[in-house]
Amino acid sequence: MDKSENRFHLLLLISVFVVATCGLIYELIAGTVASYLLGDSVTQFSTIIGTYLFSMGIGSWLSRFFKSNLLSWFIRIELLVGLTGGFSSSLLFLLFNQVESFRLVLYALVGLTGVFVGLEIPLLMRILKDRYEFSDLVSRVFTFDYIGALLASLIFPLVLIPYLGLLKTSFLFGILNVLVAWLLFEKFKSDVQGKRIMQWMLIFSTAALLGGFVFSERIMRTSESLAYADKVIYAGSSPYQRLVLTRNNSDIKLFLNGNLQFSSADEYRYHEALVHPACTYSKQLNRVLVLGGGDGLAVRELLRYPEIKSIQLVDLDPMMTKLFSSNPLLLELNKQALKHPKVTINNTDAFTWLRTCSIQFDLILIDFPDPSNYSIGKLYSTTFYKELKRCLSKDGLAVIQSTSPFVAPKSFWCINQTLNEVGLATQPFHIYVPSFGEWGYVLAGHTIGSSPVRPIPTGLRFYTPESFAQMCWFPTDMMERQTDVNRLNNQVLVHYFEKEWSVYN
Amino acid sequence: MKRRDFLLGTFGLGLLAQACKGNHIPVRFESQSPTAHKLRQQQHAAPSKFRSCELLVIGAGIAGLACMRKLSGSTKNIIWIESEQAIGGNSAWKQNSIGKYPLGAHYLPVPDERDAELLQFLTEAGCITAWKDGLPVYNEYHLCQDPEERLFYDGYWQEGLVPSFGIGPEDASEIKRFFEQVNHFKQKKGKDGKDWFCLPIRKCSNDEDARALDNLSFEADLRNRGFSSKALFMYLDYCCKDDYGCRPDQLSAWAGWHYFAARKGRSANASSGDVLTWPEGNGFLVNALLKQCTIQPETGVVALSISAENKSNKVLIWNSKTAEYELITCSQLVLATPQFVNKKLLPAHANAFRNWDYSPWMVANISMKRVPETKGMPLSWDNVWLGKKSLGYVNAGHQLLNPFESKTILSLYFPLCGDNSKEKRKQAHSYSESDWKKWIADELSYAHPGWEDYCSEIAIHLWGHAMPKPRPGFLTDEAFKQQELLAQHGIVLAHSDLSGLSLFEEAFHAGNEAAHHIQQIWNNG
Ligand SMILES: Cc1cc2nc3c(=O)[nH]c(=O)nc-3n(C[C@H](O)[C@H](O)[C@H](O)COP(=O)(O)OP(=O)(O)OC[C@H]3O[C@@H](n4cnc5c(N)ncnc54)[C@H](O)[C@@H]3O)c2cc1C
Q1: What part of B 495-524 touches A (C-beta under 8 Å)?
Q2: Tell me: the pLDDT tens digits for B314-367?
Q3: Which of A237, A268, B339, B423 sits at a 20 to 30 Å CA gap from A111?
Q4: Closest CA to B97 of B405, B338, B384
């Protein structure tokens, strides 16, 4: 063999090596992105490897249909691999929040890359087969293929992910694929058909991938998954709000519009305090109404009382109640509370619902978002509390989550005084929830008994009847202060809340 | 392609995209009944049907409704007609897939607690729920919710309608002095013991000093009192257009001060500046009045002419549903119609009607999927800007209680205030949908750039004769004396424009008084 032949062989084998490395890298990227976004890495990796290998098989099988112009085809396929592989991780990150069936997109993308990668080696072998003796060819190609795979699996976790990150890595390997295409194109220009078009395609692919590499930071920022400290395991938008679930080991957090709603590590404190004082002080417990609380965690606590006959849950957002009645992790957290036969769910606006409600309840739990804007402030007004009073049975009790009496004492006491204004007796109390800080509630009713009328259920982790007196005691920095009453036509609460929390933040 | 061509091409495309912005938004005129046109016609065919009754009431605006409410349960033979398909006149409303919206009047200020008749009606309508310490407690669902008003000034939404940011200290002190003057007028009583300013205006004092304010324009009076702040005048310009459809220099000073000083209603749970409002605007009050009427109006029936003969008035009407002319003979007749219509109905008695100059208005109801916001206060009930052609808009969805609904309807108010109302009216009627759209876009883009992307529909309603302008001298008019003459024929007038102030309270009392008058005639046999 002369020198130039030699160089040519070397070039082809380098191509095999690059192609092999890229192929494995794409597979690793898909697996990593999937386990980052969806959690449960064992499942993600094994299903993705399976899909990938299977698609490669399809690709090899498809290679038989390529009869002529093998070199042109090979270059085209290199470009396709480069583009799909290069953009795969960005696409996955960006689409995760936008599309309904993310898994479909994920496996389709993995499958597509697999098919293209599967086509590469068979085509290359056929291109080379006239230039090598067969056994020699097979051994060489596979040697380089496996060396490439080894290299990929080592540098991926040790170098690429820590130094480049997922997006840059994908773009980089996309560019390598396209470079192989360039090399082959330059070398065999004379054999390639449609040179001009091919040249443009090469220029376009290189530019696109380089652009992606340069702007990957910005793409990453657009994808909100990284706005959270922990892994995002679910994100979705309903017409009303943006729901994001994150997970860090066993701690699951729910964010609504970026605000922490609960952390599974300490939500039991919050929900036990919301439910059990009210339940144990309520003479009757036949009919219970929950406004807000579509996560089913308050309902979980309610279901500890066998005497409760029915629970009506009103939460605006169907996406929320659907998520908490279907996601296995969340079902474990709320003990399938929303699927319990005693529970009826109504996805509608709480104000409108209560206004037209014609029955009375023994217990009403109110778990609305904080009054941070005028729309939500209405749900804390005298008008709303009058409807609440109307729907409360004679001995019935209501409990209202009332923001932090430490951060926002005026807001907290304003809610208390607004309830008093409509003629309800109140008992404010507070607890400490590590992920929220000091948190407050107001117990309200036509009258409130002086002692509990039933024992607490077994299995509670936080609340005891003895601790209630202490919860009702407010130290000096959270002590009652005089405020205006929150009415629809003054909305003072929103003003208080805005002022107090802005100082705190 | 050369680089230059390419650049030019993209530039052109950009311009094109800009020009096409909002092209998708459908604009339509609210359907107008064919009856208005009928009234303008000179010649009419002979009637093919004949009816007679003891009382014919023409018009189902607030005045007609109030009159018929008061006559409820009467055993007399009464016919009531209304030219439009929908009742309510200037307080009519409509509904689309997003919700209800007003075509004209949209609020009622918390009324004077001495106005027993009005408070009685408001109690029956569910607007007053109780009394506390001698004061009415208003239904909280009907009191305008907070945030009530915001003002777009210097690129920023500020709270309230009176400019407070971005103005100089002289402006601020003049504004303060202006409201001190208003408070002074609020308290002021005449030698006859009556308030200088209150509603309805026939209850106002006849003091010469007070009446002297009717001899000059509001602007002239303000200048005489040493007011000159630009910010104050911009604000007052807005107020005058809002209530009277004219500028301070066209308005009687008495009417100008009345706007501010007559609103002193007290309540247990609202302050005197507060207002009652509903998604359908005063359409709520229209429905409440209608519910109490035992007789329903025949709609789509227009009165064309009246021949007044002693106690036997013959009224030619046209029914748009059957396309038939009809002659109604009645002994008593209530004209709950505006003066410009009355003149056409009774040309022989034209001097009994007031010679008002009516300003035209356009109200555009703009359906929005979401209101794209700019800096400052969030979306409020009344959203106002100064120094533009329109006054701003009212958020029709404001009183609804669905906290997460972003769809709403904005009612943009657009008075056409010129010195020549006739000319303005002609101009307004000549505008096409796309002409109006350009005007509307110009207004909305001022405070809400990018609004086109969220707009799903614009419905335009034109009021050719929206409201009379209370020009200097409006309180004294010879026409009053002529009305005695009409009464002899059994013709009673009932309309807000009799007083010169186009307000719910005036219409309501005009209707009540007409009914009272009729009842007296019947009682006296
Ligand atoms: C754009 C706009 C905004 C307004 N905003 C407010 C507000 O916010 N608050 C407020 O208090 N006031 C407001 N007003 C004033 C409003 O005019 C009064 O509140 C009130 O509705 C007037 O009632 P009315 O009965 O006196 O007159 P109209 O409403 O004029 O009633 C007259 C009725 O007679 C009918 N009619 C006329 N001619 C004939 C005929 N030939 N045959 C049969 N029927 C006929 C008409 O169709 C109409 O229904 C507003 C007015 C306009 C135009």
Answers
A1: none
A2: 999 999 999 999 999 999 999 999 999 999 999 888 888 888 899 999 999 999
A3: A237
A4: B405
Q: Residue A376: list chain B partners with CB under 8 A.
A: 403
Active site residue: A145, A367, A395, A484, which one?
A367
d(CA B200, CA A27): 82
- Contact indicator for B57, B336 with CB cutoff of 8 Å: yes
The yes-or-no answer on residue A367 being catalytic is yes
Q: Is B134 exposed, middle or buried (0-12, 13-18, 19+ CB in 10 A)?
A: exposed
Give residue limits of the domains in chain B: 36-89+294-355+477-523
3-state SS, residue B29: strand
Average pLDDT of chain B is: 90
Distance from chain centroid for Cα A359: 38
Ordered by start, the domain boundaries in chain A are: 3-224, 229-262, 265-504
Closest chain A C-alpha to B401 CA, distance in angstroms: 6
Backbone angles phi, psi at B94, to 5 degrees: -140, 180
pLDDT tens-digit series, residues B366-375: 999 989 888 8
CA dist B80 and B69 (Å) reads 12
pLDDT greater than 50 at residue A391: yes
CB neighbour class for B488 (10 Å; exposed up to 12, middle 13-18, buried from 19): exposed
Set of chain B residues whose Cβ sits within 8 Å of the Cβ of A351? 401-403
Q: How far is B145 from chain A (nearest CA, A)?
A: 4
Q: Where are the beta strands (DSSP E) in B336-415?
A: 358-368, 382-385, 392-395, 408-415
Interval B430-465: pLDDT, tens:
999 999 999 999 999 999 988 998 999 999 999 999
Q: Is the ipTM of this complex over 0.85?
A: no
Numbered residues of chain A with Cβ closer than 8 Å to any chain B Cβ: 239-241, 316, 349, 351-352, 355, 373-376, 378-379, 381-383, 386, 487-491, 494
Share of chain B above pLDDT 90, in %: 77
The average pLDDT across B150-154 equals 91
Measured between beta carbons, the chain A residues lying within 8 angstroms of B146 are 374, 487-491, 494
Write out the two tokens for B212.
């002297």
Closest chain A CA to residue B139 = A383
Q: Which residues of B touch A382 (CB under 8 A)?
A: 140
Q: So what CATH class is A265-504?
A: alpha beta
- Bridge partners (DSSP) of residue B100 are B95
Ligand 1 residue neighbourhood (C-beta within 6 Å): B 39, 58-64, 81-84, 89-91, 104-108, 302-303, 336-338, 341, 361, 363, 463, 466-467, 495-496, 502-504, 507
Distance spanning both ends of chain A, measured CA to CA:
75
Q: Is B145 on the interface with A (CB under 8 A)?
A: yes
**Are the CB atoms for A139 and A145 separated by under 8 Å?**
no
CB-count burial class (<10 Å; 0-12, 13-18, 19+) for A463:
buried
* Number of the ligand 1 atom closest to the C-alpha atom of B511: 25
Test site for ligand 1: of B463, B502, B513, most ligand atoms within 8 A of the Cβ: B502
B143 touches chain A (CB under 8 A): yes
DSSP annotation of A156 reads: I
Q: Which residues are registered as beta bridge partners of A433?
A: A437
- Where do the DSSP E strands lie in A402-478? 425-433, 437-445
Domain B36-89+294-355+477-523 grouped into CATH 3.50.50.60: yes
Looking only at the bridges linking them, the beta strands covering B78-82 and B49-58 are parallel
The predicted pLDDT at position A246 comes to 86
